[in-house]
Input
Amino acid sequence: MDIRFNRYLFLAAFLLPQLKAITADARAPKHFAPPSQKMVALAEALHQIQGTFHVNFNYSSATIANKFVPAEKIPVKGGFTEDKLSALLQPLGLVAEKLDATDYAIKPAVTTQKQSYTFNVAASRASHVVKGVVTNDKEELLAGVAVTARPGGKTVLTNATGAFSIEVEGDDVVLVFSSAGYLTQELKAGNNATLNVQLQADIKNLDNVVVTALGIKRQEKALGYSIATIDGSKVNTVKEVNVVNALSGKVAGVDIRAVSSDPGSSVLITIRGSSSISSGSQPLFVVDGVPISSGNRTPATPVGQVTVDYGSPISDINPDDIASISVLKGASAAALYGSRAGNGVVLITTKSGSGKSKKGLNVQANFNAMYDKAWQFPEFQNEFGAGDVTSSTDPTNTLSTASWGPRLDQGTKYVQWNSPTDVNGNLVPTDWVSYPNRVKDFFETGSTYTTNVAVSGNNFRLSYTNLQNKGISPNTDLQRNTVNLAAGYELSPKIKVTTNVAYANNHSKNRPTFNRGSASYIIYTMPGNINPALLKNYWQKDKEGLAQFSQDQGSTDNPYFVAYELTNGYNRNRLTGNIQLNIDLLKNLSLMVRSGVDFYSETDESKRAFSAVQNPNGGYSIGSLFQMERNTDFLLTYKKNLKKDWSFFVSAGGNRMDANNNSQSQAAGTLVMPGVYNIANAAAGVVTNNSSRSTRRINSIYGMGELSYSNYAFLNLTARNDWSSTLPSNHNSYFYPSASLSFIVSDMLHLNSKTVSFAKVRMNWSKVGKDTDPYNLYNNFTFASPDWGSVKMATFSATLKNNNLKPEIATSYEAGTDLKFFNNRLGIEATYYSTSSRNQIVPIPTSMSSGYSTKIINTGEIRNSGWEIGVNGTPVTGAFTWNISANFTRNRNKVVSLSKDLSSYSMGSAEGVQYQIMEGTQMGDMYGNTWKTVPDGPHKGEELLDNTGHSQAATGLVKIGNYNPDFMAGFTNAFTYKQFSLNTLLDWRQGGQFFSYVFMNLLSDGRTVNTLYGRDAAHGGVSWNDNGVERNDGMIENGYISDGNGGYVKNTNVTDPESYYGDYYWKMHQRNTFSATYVKLREASLTYTFTKKQLSRLPFTNLSVALIGRNLFSYTAAGKGYDPETAMTIKSGSIVPGTASWSLPYTRSYGVKLSVNF
Output
């Protein structure tokens, strides 16, 4: 039996390969050739060319499968030329796209139409039926292909056997064949009765080329790490002033938060969670290969207590000039950028010339108009006006800033803020009425007009953009002018030079402010009996320039006075650019040399008029900032094809980075003459001078290599060594490597499944170093200002520096898969990552007996791990198409360790809330006050009030929440029907918490509808006697009080509403902490694109018009008017999330966009 079995096994082993060959031959298309002509598989021909001329071809197995060429046509003699390659590929309907000096992508020609015709013997007729079968390049039958007749728009779908039948009118009808994952083909129906069509796979979906570190273009399938690429057109679907905001909801693993709803506000972007205790988590931004500054700006010397938002310098980049944005999320992806890339990298590639040998110029113009409307305010109460109720002797006190006064709109009169005086100087009562729209009417309709004109040719592109913005807060604005030039010139067939230069000017006479003292704060806290329209003339009569007319003389500024007389302007000029030289030294050896610069200068100016609450005698400050970073780098690349199926390339290079910063400022808190704003007008002895200067240099060498097998297995290695000037000589050199693997399983297993179109697995490991800021090694003196008479003063830093610092080290692991199904109609990408950041450079508290308050040490480890999932699909094709994509992010953060001498570490505070970390906790934990509870007995855990029945705070701080989300998700839909397209983006953030100082203030002072309960009998108030005065606004706080004998009894003490709400909310941070969950319709656009026939009599080659909107819908779990997205504060240039403090209200934006080509 064993012998028989072995015999059958031998037979099967012999016959199966033969059977496979026979069936493969049966499926192969028939290429007829003369008997004397030897045919060679295209794959073998390409391999011969690679080995002979040291070039490299990138292609999918499906593209070249079952294709043969005559052996005598293979250009292995007489030298390699692109013309010979084209002659070889053209008969097969293929083209070669040149990627660089030695790399080519083999893909189907867009105009290639493999078809067969069976002519109808009958004469042409007005109406006839066309039948046929649609296959792919593997000659597989395609179901669900849309066949659309044009004109007319009649559409049918191919059945399960790929067959279709459609009735057409006339001989001039064009049939359009379209299916996801394939190139669309257009064929003239003519008088044909049968029309068989073969669709070519869309090479863009199979062998996508992406921009990676150092600006190197790579096949996406060869990468062993996750990279997200956003096309420039998707960045501009609904235009944003700050391009970073355009990424919100579109990229898995990326958390974007704006400080306010103002279009030019600062933005915090975090990739895969917060990883640094003290140095921030902003990624590195690189534009056309050159790193640029992206830090958020605060004024050099603020005047008053408001915070000014001057926006992020990254917003200088014009969205109209962007070709693509690539987000390098993992350390492996960003390792070649060195120590500054520890938080990830955002690569921005700007547009260049067309690259086509087209005569003449292409002119493109875009006009965009957006209007911003404030909405979703807190629900302010309009039933009770200004006043206090704590005093039983004068319960009305209607000049108070709180809103506990008498009931409004009852036909009564009271003395109030604008009461006239009688002949005796006494205030005269006036009508006590409400102004329900007082907050909404203060904010104006904002507008942003953007005009862009670009001229491009074969090797250049020049664009100009003008932006004019008017904010929703009165007298706030932003103007921007940008010029961008991209050009290239081929000095010889082996030498090419390219350059990119961008200039941007941003200026504003007044930027929005927030925190206490801002216009938002004043208008939000204004009692309901005040009419803001009466405040527009903000000077007192006969005291213009000297005394403001305020609704609360002496303690609160007039909101219009703040808007027009307490201004914060700035002017910023920025120049970025690079010049790059590419040289093909040998057939397989190339050199890239590049030098780039990022320079900007900025002037900030704050003016404070006389009678300002914070500056009664005026104030003025001016500051300037100069920053320049220069990067010079080179990269030498060698590529080689080895034996059959093997190829590799290696690159080695270096970089030198020099950064210089210089800032100066002068401030005067008192002026001599009103309305004269310069330092010479400062009062004697009040001027403070500040200046700072820093330099920094990093020298680097690096290398990378790739080994590939059969174009489906890839091993990539990188290594970099930095020498940083900010670290001590014994630790300033640090080395970090990375390794990644990528397997195209579908090619490796030769999958020809109709279900699985593409399958890839990838994994990587990396280690990245990170240095510190300048001047953290040795203590130094700082000159103090103002001087002590004629004596110059200097101070010694309270922080003990450390000349033995080591670089921070981040170690990252990542694994993932990319899958495509049903001829690429469904795609799934999943990634798991884990990153550990140790040796954190942190200033920690130290004993005051040392003479210092803090010292800098290496300590602590932060770990981030999580999942990123992306899904894209095309559920519907045809005349009506529907494309959908979704992304999901779940990150978990943990403080693995701190210093052995440090049980907790404070990362700052905002409005009384502390941000602290401890071992085992998470970054983003917030700590604040909570209420006392009954410690034991049957009422344990219930709130413990004081003996008068009022809330009391527990000893110490407790965790009240964490500002990081449980997960984030984004959903994009694109619908197209004929010339119409509808695009929507839904942005969902689930979980996390934020503290609302706004909510706490509004409720403790009786400003919202939440505080109506208990105001009088009609609102549930109880009757009580207040020192002999009968009142009906009594309230009893829920809780327990001590019975004096060690036990606890239910509280029955009655108190007034002002005391009740003040105690209940003002003292307790935890009661003012809410869920940060929100869902927003981030983008919506409806576009109509004119056909060429419609434009035939116009001088346009393309024309489209769109209705656009942003944030048209919003759901927030915290309730109407409390937006967790802008729960941010700015301190010392750093954005601190988690606390909402008098930012601008949420806005809804809508507008129109016009695009035209000449």
